[in-house]
Each structure stands twice: as C-alpha cells, then as structure tokens.
Design brief:
Layout: H1 31-37, E1 40-43, E2 46-48, E3 54-56, H2 58-71, E4 88-92, E5 110-114, H3 115-121, H4 126-132, H5 136-140
Antiparallel strand pairs: 1-2, 2-3, 4-5
Length: 143
C-alpha cells in the first residue's frame, strides 16, 4: 500500500533532501518563479510571452516613438513628416483587439501615424484600413 506524506511533513528519502514538494504532493513553485515563468524579460519595460508576442510599458512605447522620430520615420498613411509632436501617435499594424487582448508591441508591428489617422482607424488592422477606408484628408485633418 502506497502512503503519502502529510502536508507539513518532510520527505525521508535522502536524495530528496527533506523536500516538502515531492512524493505525491505535486510540484509547488515559489511565488516569484510562478510570476516570472509567464514571460521573459527582454529589455527595460519589454516583456516577451511564451506565445511570442511582446508587450511594452507606456514608458518603453514612448522611448520607441522617440527613436522612430529621431530616425526620420514618416506617417504610414500620407508618407509625410511630422510638424508637431502632439500630432504623432504610435500605431499598431495588427489590431490590438478588444481591451488589448491580442496586443503585440514588437518592432515590425509598430509605426508612426498622424493622430487623426490612428483614431479613425480604430480597431481595424492598419493595412486593411489603408487599403479600404483611408483618404489623404484624414491626415490633413479635413475629415
């Protein structure tokens, strides 16, 4: 007959070194390991999840936006530069989905767009929006 150890009892097998999680009691990870096993740290404010998507904190998104502006990137819709920093937004090529559940902040998925274009695009994929609904008046604010 197989006996199991009680909850607080240490394992008597020498190789287990008095463990409290062996011999039929299941694997119990410390709380810190559970939180860190869900994602891996890439850089300051950037996390990569096991399914491959990347999420950035608001500060990391702002740094990425600044880097794209310094690089001289133009609006993805009208291919023009930006005059006012308040007009620029970081746009996602693939939709973030309702409440951000499919959010992917990876480098190829982020681009710069005029604020009006990004707001008019809403939750559509950016490439689909540009192919179907976009007009140049949106970037110029004439809509």
């Amino acid at each position: 007959m197989k006996t199991q150890l009680k909850v607080g009892e240490r394992c008597p097998i020498p190789e287990h070194k008095g463990s409290r999680i062996c011999c039929g009691r299941g694997e119990v990870m410390p709380r810190a390991q559970v939180a860190r096993s869900k994602w891996s740290y890439i850089g300051p404010g950037i996390r990569k999840y096991p399914d491959g998507h990347i999420e950035r904190t608001p500060a990391a998104l702002a740094r990425h936006k600044e880097m794209l502006l310094r690089r001289g990137e133009v609006c993805v819709g009208c291919d023009e530069g930006f005059d006012d920093y308040r007009e620029v937004e970081l746009a996602h090529r693939k939709s973030k989905g309702f409440n951000g559940w499919k959010r992917d902040d990876s480098d190829p998925n982020l681009c710069l767009a005029h604020k009006a274009l990004n707001r008019d695009c809403g939750s559509m994929d950016l490439d689909l929006y540009l192919a179907t609904k976009y007009t140049e008046e949106v970037c110029k604010g004439e809509k």
